[in-house]
Design brief:
The complex is a heteropentamer. Chain A has helices spanning 53-60, 88-94, 106-109, 116-128, 132-145, 151-154, 164-176, 194-211, 222-228, 246-251, 256-263, 306-310, 333-344, and strands spanning 11-22, 25-37, 42-47, 69-78, 81-82, 99-102, 182-186, 214-218, 231-236, 239-245, 280-281, 316-317, 326-327. Chain A is an alpha/beta fold. In chain B, 77% of the residues lie in helices and 1% in strands. Chain B is globular and about 80 Å long. Classes of the chains: A alpha/beta, B mainly alpha, C alpha+beta, D mainly alpha, E alpha/beta. Bound molecules: adenosine-5'-triphosphate (2 copies) and magnesium ion (2 copies). Chain E: Residues 10-260 form the ABC transporter domain.
Amino acid sequence: MTGSTTRPPLLDVSDLAVSFDTEGGAVHAVNGVSYTLAEGETLGIVGESGSGKSVHVLAMLGLIPRPPGRVTRGKVWFGGRDLLALPERDLRRVRGGEIGFVFQDPMSSLNPGMSVAAQIVEPLRIHLGLDQRAARARARDLLDLVRIPNTKGRLDQYPHEFSGGQRQRVMIAIGLACRPKLLIADEATTALDVTVQAEIVALVQELRREIGMAIIWITHDLGVVAGISDTVQVMYAGRILERGPVDALFRDPRNAYTLGLLRSLPDLSRGRAGRKRLQQIDGAPPDMRTPPPGDPFAPRNAYATPRCRAEMPPLSQAPGAAPGHLVAAWYDLPALLTREAAQQGHTP
Amino acid sequence: MLRFLAQRLTLAVPTLVLASMIIFALQQLLPGDTATALSGEERDPEVIAFIRQKYHLDQPLPVRYAYWAGGVLKGDLGESIRLQKPVSELVIEKLPVTLELACLAMLVALALGVPMGILSAVKRGTFADTLANGIALWGLSVPNFWLGILMILLFSVHLGWLPASGYVPPSESLVDNLKAMAMPAFVLGNAIAAVMMRHTRAAMLGVLGSDYVRTARAKGVAPLRLILRHALPNAAIPIITLGALEFGQLLSGAVLTEQIFSVPGFGKLMVDAVFNRDFATVQGVVICTAATYIALNLAADLLSAAVNPKLRRA
Amino acid sequence: QTLRFGLMEDSDALDPTLARTFASRMIFAALCDKLVDIGPDLKPVPQLATHWELSSDEKALTMHLRPGVTFHDGEPLDAAAAKYSIERHLKMPGSQRRGEIAPIDTVEVVDPLTFTIKLKQPFAPLLAQFTDRAGMMVSPKAAERLGDKFSTSPVCAGPYRFVERVPQDRIVVERFPAYWNKDQIQIQRIEFRPIPDSTVRLTNLRAGQLDLLERLAPTDVPQVSRDAKLKLGTTYELGFQEILFNTGREGSPVADARVRAAFDLAIDRNALNQVVFNGEFLPGNQWVSPKHPNYVKEYPLPKRDVAKAKALLAEAGQPKPQITLTVYANSEAPQVGQVIQAMTKEAGFDVRIQATDFTTALDAADKGNYEAYLYSWSGRPDPDGNTFSFLSCKAPLNYARYCSTEAEAALQAERGSVDAGTRQAAWKRLADRVLTDRPGIYLLHRKLLWAYGPKLTGFVPYPDGLVRFTGLKLN
Amino acid sequence: MSGVGQGNAGVAAPPAAWVASTREPGLLAAFWGRLRARPSAVVGLVVVGALMLMAALADVVAPYDPTATDWGNVRGAPSLAHPFGGDEVGRDVLSRIVYGARASLGAGLVSVLLAVSLGLPIGLVAGYAGGLVDGAIMRLTDALLAIPFLILAIALAAFLGPSLTNAMLAIGLSATSTFVRLTRAQVQAVAAEEFVEAARSVGNPPWRIALVHILPNIVPAILVQATLTIAAAIIAEASLSFLGLGQQPPEPSWGAMLNVAKNFMDQAPWMAIWPGLSIFVAVLAFNLLGDGLRDALDPRQRT
Amino acid sequence: MKAAPAYPVISVRNLSKSYPLRSWWGGKADVFRAVEDVSFEIRPGETLGLVGESGSGKSTIGRAVTMLNPPTSGTIAFEGIDLARLSPQALCRTRARIQTVFQDPYAALNPRMSAGAYVAEAFRLHRPDMARSERREAVASLFARVGLDPHFLGRYPHQFSGGQRQRICIARAIALKPSFIVADEPIAALDVSIQAQVVNLLQDLQDDLGLSYLFISHDLRMVRYLCHRVAVLWRGRIVELAESDRLYEDPRHPYTRRLLAAVPLPDPAAERARLAARETTNPAPGRPGDLVEVGPGHWVAADPLPEETDR
Ligand SMILES: Nc1ncnc2c1ncn2[C@@H]1O[C@H](COP(=O)(O)OP(=O)(O)OP(=O)(O)O)[C@@H](O)[C@H]1O
Ligand SMILES: Nc1ncnc2c1ncn2[C@@H]1O[C@H](COP(=O)(O)OP(=O)(O)OP(=O)(O)O)[C@@H](O)[C@H]1O
Ligand SMILES: [Mg+2]
Ligand SMILES: [Mg+2]
């Protein structure tokens, strides 16, 4: 769907749904997510916390805890195979090899009982079949690559001896170790200060160019998304509400939730003295044990129509928008915004 | 490293002193004294008086403790009144046997308990989990003497594979030694296996849900390596702690098993000494178990630090 | 070949002067020959002494030693050595033998193979004492050298000499090549192995780990009989099981002889024997069993009579006496206690059972800190050994705190003469008193049970419970 | 301003009436609900309950007086009159199993309660206070651990007189050190968590942090150990009663029955089977219940 | 904004904190100086932003000023009282007025305590006289105050989203009407719309209650938005401290510049341009020197001192 390439996409997710069995009933964490990703493409995913961003990527590789988690339907095509139907053995070959993963929380995602070297060496030995010495040498290169100073002495240290930022860089080194075709980075830079974050973003960009790797970059930082992505996808309550080329989506949001996100950023153009109150989205996301029948964002959305509350809008090409800019909405946001601005007497 | 060891060993001193004082005081609570126990069927009053005097039993408690402690400081653990042998000799004779038995029992406990605990954690809620729990708890609820006798009946009387009793020092024949130790070690280990299993299960459940195990899976790590290399070391601390505790209790607590299989170990020495009010022997054994126990805790701490690098700092 | 012999308990010090346990006697049977032995019929037979004669005033015993006998260290066993050994029994600090041969005044060497024992007063059981540890001779040289450490490597003149001892594991002895009766000794080595639990002992025998075991549990007799490979050796013991009462205990119902009599009447000895011991033991009512030549036939086994027991209690003004029965915590005594508890309940007794370890029980008995005590005595060849220490007013084992002038006189009389008629009359007089006063109630005489494997032959059970290794063979 | 961005923070204050009317289900009810959702826990609860009930109503349940002897039923095989057979002095095994539950469950529960109620606070103090206090407590615990259980039991019995209660005391005391160590280790782990720091930051005094914030988080490990100790205590009572230090004859306890039965393995296996089975069932039930409790006490457990 | 009174709520003088570095068998090897000679003060109603590279000691300072992790040296005066001099009891009472909101709202909540009980604890501790019903109501209105549905009182931490959890923490922090709150990366784990909620909440509370904040964050845009003054921390020392507009418009210290240059822009074209033009200036080695005033209230560290320890 994205771009006009005729080559088959690298990744094709169709109608993926995941739920968790809990005491109070099943939590429908992901509710039919479909998208494709071309080779070398960078997809930024933003969205409400708890909207299923992490869960849906974990589900692709069979990494959700089971029980209580369950993939209820969907297919994930990657390199001509449906990952969800793949036996565990074959799936293991994909994990860490063709698809690299960087997790959200560097504090807990590294094994506290293994040296950093041992953890980086692991995928190299499993997927590339390197021997211990070669793998260790590669591990050092990788640490250099993610700009950890003084790599020699640090290889045999343990995660707790690294700072949060450094740990995150180790995670990234692990994710990149086998030069994957696809890197999934789940809030890979959240815990880092901006200088380190900038370095890592630059690093990933470089690698992407170098080895033609595709990236799924999950983050809350709209600034990072803006810089890194080709395509952006907005998730809410287990669904994709909007998806489009990065410029189009930032410039011309078609879903009220996307708009809300963009508007909640602080506006610093007028300095601190002239600042306005931050705009926030009130209310809470729906209880995913009983997802609303219609648009899940409707209860918090001032522009929602009765139809929004009753029926889930499909994700389809937004009228009058850039090609490949898809939105799930029954309302026409630009039209509404124009009307609103007119009523208030000035243009947005 | 050496300084650390020295430091830890200094901490052992108060423990040893305390243990010896407690045991000294406790023995005073026991009815009857060495003289009563030793005067035999004939109960000659002169014999009783003689024994009392010879072993200072007629002295007040602190004086007797001082006698004993003075001896210990000179490297003399006293003499077993009953066996007329220096306690240190007895200890040297029995300690290796006890240690071997305890080690083997621990080995059995770990070999049974840890895999079962892992299995039931990995397969939580399945039939395998229930079965593993059932087996482990069965092991816990069968008294040692029962299991021991049943095993002798099966393996010695009916099958004739293993000797029913009789300790063979490993220096004589390692094979025979192991054959003789197999059943007692199993009987002892079997009960501890349940403890190991339950704690392994609990710890593994915590670890298996952790993020780093997920990371390992995302790297494509195979299940076996995932469990053994990534999960188990992080679940090992309670296993090590309890292992050391149980090991310590094996040193003097394996009486029944030792009795059934006629293993000449500490437990039996201790119990006989208690029943015969052979105070010096009891004291000697307690001091030795206390010392071993301290060494065990030290080893457990080192081991914990080995599996958990974080502990190396604090 | 090695004979592996399962004992019920580990021995204490292996020094005939200091030893006090039954288990040590088992081992001395191999290590140390005695001046005199007893035959299966309880008659003294020569062992180290070939013959002996008692002076007419019964105050001097002259013994003639077997020539050419040596100790295990090669020292000759001569009169001087015998004198040394006997004096050692008498004088060594902590000697457990002193009381047994206390009437001995001096020992005189007559010639190298003859010595005379002078007594302070006539002492009928003397010869019988010499059939046990008091008659065991030790090498003076070794005894001098080792002092009170003699037990670490005892040197005697028995068929086997000491090899090693691992406390609680085994005591090993090997055939003494220079033994005076070596032709009768076939087995090369004996390994004594203490295995306290009778079930375990039996399983070991069945597993071929043992060749011989002592004190088989009576309830296991059917199992052994059924097993074609196992053989059983039995004989009745010299001792007894009794319930001792602390007659001196103030305020306790057992201080009243009528209550004690009622207790006796409430017990059905046959039922007790059947329930706990499979009927293997011998019900009794005296210090010797009904099969013993000195049994006083005028007092046959009493019958249970609950009504009479109740009447006696009523007469004593204690219709529901409450009595604590102390029992030794082994596998059988608590059972006996519970059966007695149930039986006497019908007569109105409220018996509380208190199971304790051996030392605690002894301590309570010593201090008079008990009411009733289920007591067993392994027995001595001469009935004096079953009575005097218990019933004489100041005797050390008089836990009952019993003292009766008539009984005392009878006891002195039986000791004072070797004449059978005189002694039997004394036994009758003793029974007159004791079976009426009932400082204790004699219940049963145990059957001594040995089980042994198919390879062992030539086993002869002796009523003293000890094994004679002479003539034993392992095939 | 209308639309997505609503400037006003938060929901309006609720009417006071609401506070009383809408309440989450009570803690106990929620706990009960979670417990009920686990079949194995329910089985455990039912069996434990049944055993307790059996012990409490032994007078009603048992067909015979557990101490009444019948010379005709000595080691008698199971029959209609005596479905579990007869014991070594002809008592009804079934009745003794029923009454024995009192001693055995009592031994298990009382000693564990004692061990926990001593070991837990001491371990908490040692683990949370650290330093000198910790050092002193741990030295003492180590020393106590080195004291053989048997000596403790005999000395205690000698001091207080032999009885079931004192046996429970002895068992409980000797299990205490294990709980001290376990608690301490767990406390040290939990005390490093950030929420403990958060608790300090609102001004919680140390005792409150230990009790309110740390204690509930160490319950799982303690529960596991406690249920295991119940089993050990039931067995330990057997060896003590063998030495006359536990249940006094002729009163029954499962352990004591099993103990005697070993002498009659060959002739009267039922004497062993029933008490053995009872112990196993009780141990299993306690452990199932323990697992269930642990899960139910953990608000994070949602499956 | 209210005019800030002259005396500070909190005043930190020469604060240093070092951690012992221990070899793995427990022997003391050396100390690691995490924070060195830091001084600043915060006035009533003022928000001081604390930014800097990770590991530069921001959290350490936050913990030190609340005495959760007392400093190695230096004084911390709260409303004129030296906290180090207080008895433990008095410190507990004073803690009612100094509160902390932690970075990870999940780790900071006791997993076995319901949200309501958690917030009520503050009252339990410091208002023992409060009746049950009164406390209940107070908690309910606090929930309302931070924008939580009071139905959630009985729920447990795991049942809340990150933003909601952070609100629970804030509700508890403001329960006792403190005058000073340390907020250690309170928004890092939250999505932007929730970040806005939390920041607005903090802002509203400051307006209503006159609170002061020490706001620790990596989000430089939010810091500029929220804070009156900003301190930049680098290698355990403050390298620049100024009014926030001044700092953002006229950064003096090389590290501050580097930091500001790294802030991503939420505008694709601009951000791509920024990334393309990015220069990677490496910070000078060594430890920063003492602060000098370069403008009114604008302090900058002198050139770095030569490196003393290898970090
Ligand atoms: N183990 C689990 N049990 C029950 N529910 C779960 C579990 N794991 C995740 N969920 C639910 O799945 C939903 C999606 O979670 P997910 O982690 O994908 O959110 P996210 O978009 O990554 O949020 P964030 O930005 O906070 O990381 C959430 O509502 C969460 O409560
Ligand atoms: N308990 C401790 N023991 C030893 N060193 C510590 C301890 N706590 C923190 N440190 C060290 O002190 C330095 C400062 O840590 P601090 O947590 O204050 O950094 P920070 O600025 O908050 O970083 P981040 O932005 O990553 O949270 C770090 O290098 C850290 O490794
Ligand atoms: Mg996520
Ligand atoms: Mg920090």
